[in-house]
Each structure stands twice: as structure tokens, then as C-alpha cells.
Write a structure and sequence with these properties.
alpha/beta; TIM Barrel; 8-stranded parallel barrel; 11 helices; 8 strands; globular; binds 3-hydroxypyruvic acid; binds magnesium ion
Length: 247
């Protein structure tokens, strides 16, 4: 899907962490606006990512979370033809600049020019190269207290399209792992949101359950990310068994 920058409405998404093309296809036909294909916390390979992109088609925005802030991962993932990347654990402006440099073709950056699925294996080469720097969605995660301390400088880095808040890693970096409703975690997340709003940059956030995420939509979140395929599957089986094994 062509990214509609600047993003004018909230986008509701979920995480693909399983290699099954059927899972990706099911997610793509349920009406999600975007999906995050997760190479950071899964065993997904580049081939699995390409398969997910092939079956989801252009119905929704497909963002791939790279395993880390690494030039080699970023170029290989972008060459799959995804609509953008999410880079975890960006803690300083220098790290954010590195993301932009790895993601943009020269002269804006230093992404290497190759021929891959993104370029329709050849015929799309010129079109892709002309549009990539403008169209690809470059998102970075602020998910460590160090990133929050450096947020003003990070928000000044040109070429980042959205911040993404990682509540779990953020809470862990504060010594409060998983305590997402702890007042210190809540107030730290609020600092990130307020700073993004002030800078005019969209932000996204992740949550496991839909109901508590409703308030995020009212609060101005753009990239809402809810649930993970594997745990959704697990929970639906637990629900079935909790009913049927009751008697
Ligand atoms: C986190 O909560 O740390 C995340 O990265 C969510 O995707
Ligand atoms: Mg994280």
C-alpha cells in the first residue's frame, strides 16, 4: 500500500510473527490497516517476510521490524518490497540518523542500490528508485529510558516518519518489566506522546488486548498495534478448552 503521508487517520494493525502464509492472508482479509512483520522477536526469515508480502498484497501497509539498527538488515529487508521498516531500540539522535542513512538512497542516505522484489526484479527499478526515499515509511522505536532522555534530539532528526513506543522494553529499562500501568511507566509514555505531538510527528504504541487500546485511539495514536498472531491463536485454543473441559 502506498503510504498516505502525512498520516491523517489512526491505523489499526497487528503483529505477524508466524511463518505461515495462511496466517498473513487471514490477517490481510480481516480489515487491518497495517501489519508489523516481526523479525526482531520471531524466527521469521527474509523468505518468510517475502511470502507474507506476496500473500497480503497491497491491501494494507506492511512494515517489517528489523532485528536491529543495522545497515545490512535494513537494506535486505527494504529490498523485499515492504512499505517501510520499524527499527527497535533507538536511543540517541546519532542512532536515529543511522537509520535514515541506511534507509534512503543517495544522496539523502547511503542505501545500496540492488535489484530485488522491491524493484519487481527489474521492470520496476526506475519507478522504485524514484519513489523510495519519499514513499517508504521509516519508523523508530523509543523503548528505553535512555531514548526518552534523548527524545528532543531524536525528534529533530529529519527523515523519520513516526516514533513507535515499546511499552514492554521501556518498562523493563525502568526496572518495572511488564508493569504497564505503573504510574512511572504511564507518565514516561505520556512524555513521549506529548513530545511527538509538539514536534508534529505521529506515534504508535503496542498493546496485547483491544479494550485498553481504545483510549490510545482517542489520545491521538496513529500506528496502533494490537496483539500477536501466535498468542491470539494460543488464547483462542485456551478459550475453547476452558469451556469444553469445564464439565
Ligand atoms: C515493546 O513493548 O517493547 C515492543 O517492542 C512492542 O512491540
Ligand atoms: Mg520492544
Amino acid at each position: 500500500m502506498k503510504a498516505e503521508k502525512p498520516f491523517s487517520k489512526p491505523l489499526i494493525g497487528t503483529i505477524i510473527s508466524m511463518a505461515s502464509p495462511q496466517v498473513a492472508e487471514i490477517i490481510s482479509i480481516t480489515g487491518f490497516d497495517w501489519v508489523m512483520i516481526d523479525m526482531e522477536h520471531s524466527s521469521l526469515s527474509l523468505e518468510n517476510v517475502e511470502n507474507a508480502l506476496q500473500v497480503t498484497g497491497e491491501k494494507l501497509l506492511r512494515i517489517v521490524r528489523v532485528p536491529g539498527n543495522d545497515e545490512i538488515w535494513i537494506k535486505r529487508v527494504l529490498d523485499t518490497g515492504c512499505d517501510g521498516i520499524l527499527v527497535p531500540m533507538v536511543n540517541t539522535a546519532e542512532e536515529a540518523r543511522r537509520v535514515v542513512q541506511s534507509s534512503k538512497y543517495p544522496l539523502e542516505g547511503k542505501r545500496s542500490v540492488g535489484l530485488a522484489r522491491a524493484h519487481k526484479f527489474g521492470p520496476g527499478f526506475t519507478d522504485y528508485l524514484e519513489g523510495a526515499n519519499k514513499n517508504l515509511v521509516i519508523m523508530i522505536q523509543i523503548e528505553n529510558i535512555e531514548g526518552v532522555r534523548n527524545i528532543d534530539a531524536i525528534l529533530e532528526v529529519k527523515g523519520i516518519d513516526s516514533i513507535f513506543i515499546g511499552p514492554y522494553d521501556l518498562s523493563a529499562s525502568m526496572g518495572l518489566t511488564g508493569q504497564l500501568s505503573h504510574p512511572d511507566v504511564v507518565s514516561t509514555i505520556k512524555i513521549i506522546k506529548d513530545k511527538c505531538r509538539k514536534a508534529g510527528l505521529p506515534y504508535g504504541i503496542f498493546g496485547m488486548k483491544a479494550e485498553p487500546m481504545l483510549s490510545e485511539l482517542n489520545d491521538g495514536c496513529t500506528f496502533l498495534l494490537c496483539g500477536v498472531d501466535s498468542s491470539n491463536l494460543l488464547n483462542s485454543y485456551i478459550d475453547i478448552l476452558s469451556v469444553l473441559k469445564k464439565r
